[in-house]
Design a protein that fits this description.
Blueprint: E1 2-8, H1 10-14, H2 18-28, E2 31-38, H3 42-48, H4 58-65, E3 70-77, H5 80-88, H6 101-105, E4 114-116, H7 120-130, H8 144-147
Helix pairs in contact: 2-5
């Protein structure tokens, strides 16, 4: 069972799209195991985006992610990383598949509404960065056997 980090970034929060993102992931069949609404500290922003340090767009990323509240969540399910990224759509909204969150609600890469881990390994690292282990819930739903073959 994979787990992945999902952030509704400041533009998605300001546009009132938290519920839309949650609804799409729930309808997809994924299970929410952690969520918190937070203001992102400079330290957290710099750690999260450390891979981009030194690139020309790095300062803008830091300013953007810390400019307003973020909804941070952990979702789980079989192939959760791929399923979430598919549901969110390509990073560049104009290349996102029709029906994806970014296709339906975004126009520019700098305001692409969400973040989703790009691999299981990065998901584990990002989840550990954003959440303490005791904030992650292990639970099941009555519908799980109808959604997950192995759970």
């Amino acid at each position: 069972m994979e787990r992945t980090l999902v952030l509704v970034k400041p533009d998605g929060v300001q546009r009132g799209l938290i519920g839309e993102v949650i609804s799409r992931l729930e309808r997809r069949g994924l299970r929410l195991v952690a969520a918190k609404f937070i203001s992102v500290s400079l330290e957290l922003a710099e750690t999260h985006y450390a891979i981009h340090k030194g690139k020309p767009f790095y300062p803008g990323l830091i300013n953007y992610i810390s400019s307003a509240p973020v909804m941070a969540m952990v979702w789980e399910g079989p192939n959760a990383v791929t399923a979430v990224r598919q549901t969110m759509g390509a990073t560049r909204p104009t290349e996102a598949a029709p029906g994806s969150v970014r296709h339906d609600f975004a126009l520019e890469i700098e305001r692409n509404l969400t973040h989703a881990s790009d691999s299981v390994e990065n998901g584990e690292k990002e989840i550990a960065l954003w959440f303490r282990s005791e904030e992650l819930l292990d639970w099941t739903r009555p519908i799980d056997p109808w959604v997950f073959v192995h759970f």
